[in-house]
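Title: [Solved] FAD-dependent oxidoreductase 3D structure

Original question kept below for reference.
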Amino acid sequence: MTPTQRTPLALAAPFTFGGLTLRNRLVATAHATAAVSDGAPTAADASYWRRLAQGGAGMVITGGTAVAPESTLPQRYLTEAWRPEARDAVRRRAEAITDQGAVAVAQLVHLGRETLGAGTYYAPVSAAAVRSPREATAPHPLSADEVRGVVDAFRISAANSVQAGFHGVELHAGHGYLLAQFLSRATNTRDDAYGDRIALLAQVIDAIRAEIGELPIGVRVSVEPGEDSGLGLHDLTELLPRLCAASPFAYVNVTTGVRNTYVPGMATTRPPLLESVARLRSAVALPLLVSQGFRSVADIEGALSSGADLVGMARPFMADPDFARKVIAGDERSVRPCTGCNEGCRTFEPTGSCSVNPELGPPGAATRPAVPLLLTRPGGLSGPVAVLGAGPAGMECALALARSGAEVTVFDTARQAGGQARLASLAPHRPGWRKFVDYQREQLADLGVPVLLGSSPGPEALEAYAEIVLATGAEEGSVAVPGELRTLTSSDFLCRYADVVPDAPAVAVLDDGFGWWQGISAAESALAAGAREVTVITPGTGFAAGLSPENRTQLMNRLTGAPLRVVALSTVTSTTADGVRLRHVLDGRETSLAADVLVTVGERRSRRPDFSPAAHQTVRAVGDCVVPRRIAHAVAEGRAAAEALAARAARPL
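Solution (posted by the thread starter after getting help):
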């Protein structure tokens, strides 16, 4: 094999099923950005799907598509597929995908007893009056007539979807939603005909088949965790062959989890189903799509070699819509990686976004809104750019500048790139930030951008630069707690916990009350280092209150059984040689707690170098050195600063 040749990737091969030919084996599985108004997709929605399909995915499955009024939310950001009035908007979505050469499939869902934590106008329903652990009350058990109404709702929604231009539909029978509730031993306790766990799904398939003919119908199922979940892998390998024999369908899409666990956070570093592909393959004879947690070519190829026909991902396409095109071209290194942070993609404020992809903006904005801080008026002519800071903001700015052809140099006083993202990645279960830092650093190296670490340029060294971008980040302030106990900031502790904890096995963590990752990572780091006991003290009302529901649920699952205590509505007033003094923030009562070390979560404060720019220099600030916020702000402001500089350089004299 010559140096220019490479082994063909299985993921690049076309695949045919249900009369459709996919250009490759990569599937953008169902997700949505909530760019929907009054139940109808907006122009921003169509733009999102067009850009994703343009990136080369073989099949694109759109999610967030409900089949009945009782399965919608008051904000109406789920597509209301049963409404003929929404068909034109849905057609624009379908055309956006098909015009770019991808197969378009609409996933249809009925939430059943799962209300997504939102108040609804309707009673939640299910196979039986079995309460979801994610809901406060048991649902209304559907009567046989009402079940037949659900069948009709799926039929109508499927007909509307294919009439709007979709090549087929996928039935969402996973993640604990209504069809899964009928499949599950734990939730389907009926004694009528629908007590046969496949009965409802089989009727839905048959009704849709009568409506749309031979167009493909897929079924998505999920392996639910726990021996008594009622829908484990053994259940699916028994149910799927029966279902396929009773009511044939085109493909099966297998994933894992239920609400709040089916979108895995950073702690999940390998695809959960990768080791189960062979077992699934032996159980089902129809095309097999496996999903969840796939990020790398190696894992995708591993799934295909084990028997999968297709591999599905959602968040990696949000982070980089060109994922498919890049990996098929053998350029995996240039893929902007999904970190698994579950921040922008799971907040819907007002639409879903991505923390590391600044090109995803809310409706009405071409990109994520970001305004770098202009510290000096534009000086003389534009020219070489100095970026001070090699964190996410600074490196994003340098990347965009280099790609525009600008001459740029990055400086950082630290000896490692990454800033706060690198620091966050030192904690257990937070490796996604290291992936992103490595991506930025490697891309800068490929572009030949000098990154001078451990370097603090003075005015003389900066004289040669016409443009200066400050991306110097922030630092954590100390919390003034008087007393004798050894006290470290959470930043210091993250850098040293492996050395600190063996000599200080009882760790107290004073959170700032906002329940964000600094205090959580301090607690998880202490536990990973073998702490005998960790106590989180917070003036807030609870633990990890700032996290998204997915991240919080998965965190609590990780911590089950750990020697961790939480003392809420309390603060530390002082320390002694062997512990801390606590005061309840409401009644003022004081108590003592034994501890060997105190870790404090302090305010993050902007850090800017103190220098006076020359008359010919323009200075901008981005990211945490403007105001400490999230990585999404840093990345977006870094990109925006680069675009402002490139636009200035392009102006005629």
